[in-house]
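Quick check before the chapter quiz. The format below is the same one you will see on the exam, so make sure you can read both the input and the output lines.
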Amino acid sequence: MEFLDEKILALRNEMREQERHEEAVQAEAVYPIDLTQDFIVINNKTVKIQTTTMLNSSMTLRMPASFFEMSKELAALKYPSEHRPNIIFTDETTTVNLAFSHTTMELMDDEVEQFRDEMVEGMEEMQPNAQWLDSGTSIIQEKPISYFSVITPAIDGRLFNLMFFCALNNYAFIGTFNCLEGDFDTWQPIALGIIDSIQFMQRQDKGGIVQ
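Here is the expected output.
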């Protein structure tokens, strides 16, 4: 009986320790880096930040100038599916990637969060061993951008993924940032800063922001 009591006490202590760990993780809020500045420091190096215009001037965002558009040959190797993103940027290591797809799936602003949740459900089925980190919605120029972050297993290690979604010209726009789990602390606030830097360009014919 005494042995059983000791096991119960040990189990309770273990559960309390796990609860404290989860509370500590939740308390460690990660804030996006302000990419409106001209330079930031990445891995003790000063890196220039540039504005990139995409999708026929429908939107702009800020990213490190060290990023460059991935060659078609490398993209075919890293993203073997024929449904690879339309645009892929990478850094000199090719382990930090920023990809975009403007899809043919119709999507309105009030459907963005539901779309994000459906993407989460799909990834949960494909990646049952994924470690889920965060999800949320930012409002930029009155348009919602929903996102989630997750660490997934891969052939050469574990990857940090941040996916974000919005309605662009009434179709789903999907952005994906990924890097090795070991670089997670460095790149997570930068990835969040990229989302915050998105600007939707004004249409000259309608005088308003892109719908």
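If your answer matched, good. The radius of gyration is 20 Å.
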